[in-house]
Amino acid sequence: MQKMNVESFNLDHTKVAAPYVRIADRKELPGGDTLIKYDVRFAQPNTDHLDMPVVHSIEHLTAEHMRNHTDALIDFSPMGCQTGFYALTLGLEPDAFLPVLEETFRDITEAEEVPAANATQCGWGTNHTLAGAQDAVREFLRRRDEWSEVYA
C-alpha cells in the first residue's frame, strides 16, 4: 500500500480492535511546543459506528468538560466514519492524557445536559442525545483496561 499524507489512511483499519486510545500524530512546532493528536476509538471500524446524535453530543460534552481538567486541549473532533474522535493537545503525553480523558468521561456520565445543544450555540442544536452519549461513554469506561491495546 502506498504511504499517504494522512496518518490514519496508513492505519490498517481491519487489524485494530476498538476501543483504544493511540497517538495518531506528533508535531514539533518551530517555537518548541509539541502537538499530540490522539485517536480515541469507540467503535470497531467497518463493523460498528456511533449514531450521529451520539457523536455530536460526545463532542460537545467532551470539548466542554475536558477543559475543566486541562488547559492543553486544543480540539476534540469527531471522525467522519463515526467510530471515534481526535483529541488534539498541546504536549499532553499519554500518562497525563489518559487520566484526563477518564475523568472527563466520568463527568459526562453525571452530566444533566449537553452543553450548547440549542439553535443559538450549535449548527444543529436538536441533533443530540445525552442518554446515548452517556451510554457510549459508560461502555468506553467499562473497557478502560483495553485502551492501550490497539491491535487484537
Please trace the helix and strand order, writing H or E for each element: EEHEEHH
Total number of domains? 1
Class by SSE composition: alpha+beta
Give the low-pLDDT segments: none
Find the CATH superfamily: S-ribosylhomocysteinase (LuxS)
**In percent, how helical is the residue content?**
25-40%
Q: Roughly what is the average pLDDT, rounded to an integer?
A: 97
Per the CATH scheme, the topology name is Gyrase A, domain 2
Please summarize what this structure is:
The chain is of the alpha+beta class and 152 residues long. Helices cover 28% and strands 20% of the residues. The chain has helices at 52-65, 94-109, 130-142, and strands spanning 20-28, 34-41, 73-78, 84-90.
Textual characterization of the structure:
The model has no long low-confidence stretch (mean pLDDT 97). α1 crosses α3 and α2 packs across α3. A hairpin with a 5-residue loop joins β1 and β2. The protein is built from 3 helices and 4 strands. Strands 1-2-4-3 form a 4-stranded antiparallel sheet, with helices on one face. The longest helix has 16 residues. It has 152 residues and is α+β, with helices and mostly antiparallel strands. The protein has a single domain, classed as S-ribosylhomocysteinase (LuxS) (Gyrase A, domain 2), CATH 3.30.1360.80. The radius of gyration is 15 Å and the shape is globular.
